[in-house]
């Protein structure tokens, strides 16, 4: 099975398995979750997630990682809290979050304006689990701090980035700084990037 056609076949097969009272394996669940992601089928993905939770399906790392891969889709559809809950499932199942799952939960927190929660995840990632940060991780953090009006914290984070943050992050910082007339801070940020 491949592409959207295979995704439709996977969801149809699951319906038939349920009708015949056949318990799906973890691989079936992963295939179904991936099929829903491929189809952009948020409702079906939620239904499968509910099935996993309701039937106390074994939440091993493979299944939970497939679930957390759906977090950005949830966040993009205004369901940030559910995306964060999925990440919590990954943590509670003793699954080890990776840089991609962290990016998903940071994105969800960012879209939901959850500054404190995103900061907690960022610190967990950097100080406890010690995952190497990408510019995308920093960008999510800069954006949420910036939108919350935490300009000094934003500037401090930008200074801590070990590589040149580039125009995307700098632009994200500079625009709101102009709005609140913090030109000096914007100049320092520009100087940091150009030095």
From TrEMBL:
GO terms for molecular function: RNA binding. GO terms for biological process: RNA modification. This is Pentatricopeptide repeat-containing protein At2g42920, chloroplastic-like. It comes from Populus euphratica (Euphrates poplar).
């Amino acid at each position: 099975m491949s592409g959207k056609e295979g995704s439709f076949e996977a969801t149809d097969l699951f319906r038939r398995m349920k009708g015949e009272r056949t318990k799906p394996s973890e691989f079936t669940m992963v295939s179904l979750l991936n099929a829903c992601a491929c189809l952009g089928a948020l409702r079906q993905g939620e239904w499968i997630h509910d099935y996993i939770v309701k039937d106390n399906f074994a939440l091993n790392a493979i299944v939970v990682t497939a679930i957390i891969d759906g977090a950005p889709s949830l966040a993009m559809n205004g369901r940030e809290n559910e995306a964060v809950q999925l990440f919590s499932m990954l943590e509670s199942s003793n699954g080890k979050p990776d840089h991609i799952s962290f990016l998903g939960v940071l994105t969800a927190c960012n879209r939901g304006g959850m500054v404190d929660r995103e900061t907690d995840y960022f610190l967990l990632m950097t100080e406890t689990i010690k995952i190497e940060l990408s510019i995308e991780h920093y960008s999510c953090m800069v954006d949420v701090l910036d939108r919350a009006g935490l300009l000094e914290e934003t500037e401090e984070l930008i200074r801590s980035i070990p590589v040149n943050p580039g125009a995307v992050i700098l632009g994200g910082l500079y625009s709101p700084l102009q709005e609140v007339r913090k030109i000096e801070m914007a100049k320092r940020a520009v100087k940091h990037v150009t030095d």
